[in-house]
């Protein structure tokens, strides 16, 4: 088996490729950038593609996947595709329609992984962030355990092969795991994770429950992301990371990605630069020593690039807990 298609087994028996291609782009970016980058990623060897209803690019990502299937580069079953349920669709009766909207945009019959994007429910409607006259975001009162039951039904219907969560803290994960009548455990928790926020306690908790941790923002975050404080530290400029890159004759990005794989984390790499997309697949060509892994563990500073500031007053805001 080609090493770049390495997978880990999920708790429901399906397999997830350990390296994924992230597709989020700022709203002002031209949509064809996502289309072209996703095509390049599939040609280069990425088989795990991560998107979301919220990214507003599923038409382009779906077109890229379907075009590579039509060209005979891949079959549908070669691609592991993830999408996410947005916060305005948490009411149980809206969960399946939310997924069906994504499938319609993608023009695919099923997704491989469906995640609850955030544990914070918002009032249903056309806007991503419904607000009142004062500009405050309007929360919705939904029991996430009922949302999870609706997710389980999507799996039963074959619309999603696996189901999981994203941005849940330990307490919120336990609420799902301890739900009476639970039929399917979340297969994963997708969270921000990088050497400045290594999530070691959450990782240990997830491993103890046979839940895979999936890392987004694994290379820090692009400054053009409006959610990111422009004065925050740039991860890939970290002197320790740069020195290690020189030692292994790799890029700082590859060191950051390799760090996650050796911790048993599934990692998403986001780049729309063709050279970097192809370069990121070199993560399987080398190994970090256990001493260097400890050094990288020591970089943790609890710096969170994506802190969902708009939603800090939400009763289910996940990032106030330690993990």
Automatic annotation (TrEMBL):
Record flagged with keyword Plastid: no
Alphabetized Gene3D superfamilies for the sequence: NADP-dependent oxidoreductase domain (3.20.20.100)
Family matches, as PROSITE patterns: ALDOKETO_REDUCTASE_1 (PS00798), ALDOKETO_REDUCTASE_2 (PS00062)
Keyword Chloroplast carried by entry: no
Pfam family, one: Aldo_ket_red
NADP-dependent oxidoreductase domain segment(s): 19-300
SUPFAM superfamilies registered for this protein in UniProt: NAD(P)-linked oxidoreductase
Sorted UniProt keywords: NADP, Oxidoreductase
InterPro entries reported for this sequence: AKR (IPR020471), AKR1C (IPR044482), Aldo/ket_reductase_CS (IPR018170), NAD(P)_OxRdtase_dom_sf (IPR036812), NADP_OxRdtase_dom (IPR023210)
Coiled-coil residues: none
PANTHER family xrefs: ALDO/KETO REDUCTASE (PTHR11732)
Similarity remark: Belongs to the aldo/keto reductase family.
Protein name stated in the entry: Aldo-keto reductase family 1 member C4-like isoform X2
Organism: Galeopterus variegatus
Gene, per the UniProt record: LOC103581518
